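Input (structure):
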């Protein structure tokens, strides 16, 4: 694995968010408004939320076209968080929104799906296995909607390392709180 994996994975989550052209128009590329992170509080024009804490092994990396991204250099795992607020985009169901987050993953297989409560609303959490540039990977996505906003949180890792940080990801998600 390499930094190419991190960049490619982040790109897939944030920019390849569509399976049909109409959906791409509304959802791909993420919200273009920029936000700011103060501690665990993230705020931009249309929304604000609190993220979970992560151990020091996770390093924030700057991305364009999404809210937040973290990288674990120990095995190059990533966690991304994105919000998109628009009345036209909110009409898509959680399944469709979740499916868009794994476009570009080859040989993907859904291995688990659940509907946990995140920030007071039902979300869709899915775990996939597949390949990215021939490398076996595993991805967990969490998608939720509140008001006119869609939030997605994703964790990706090499398949063999997935369980090493999955508990940290689950804790991160459990602390996610939408503020407005």
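Output (sequence):
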């Amino acid at each position: 694995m390499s930094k190419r994996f991190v960049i490619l994975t982040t790109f897939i989550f944030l920019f390849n968010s569509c399976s049909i052209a109409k959906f791409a128009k509304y959802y791909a590329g993420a919200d273009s408004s920029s936000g700011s992170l103060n501690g665990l509080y993230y705020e931009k024009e249309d929304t604000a939320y609190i993220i979970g804490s992560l151990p020091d092994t996770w390093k924030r990396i700057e991305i364009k076209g999404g809210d937040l991204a973290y990288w674990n250099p120990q095995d190059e795992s990533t966690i991304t968080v994105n919000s998109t607020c628009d009345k036209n985009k909110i009409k898509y169901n959680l399944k469709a929104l979740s499916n868009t987050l794994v476009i570009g993953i080859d040989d993907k297989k859904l291995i688990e799906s659940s509907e946990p409560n995140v920030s007071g609303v039902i979300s869709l959490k899915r775990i996939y296995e597949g390949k990215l540039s021939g490398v076996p990977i595993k991805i967990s996505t969490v998608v939720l909607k509140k008001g006119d906003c869609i939030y997605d949180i994703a964790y990706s890792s090499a398949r063999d390392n997935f369980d090493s940080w999955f508990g940290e990801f689950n804790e991160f998600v459990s602390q996610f709180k939408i503020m407005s």
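Notes: The longest helix spans residues 3-15. The chain has a mean pLDDT of 83.
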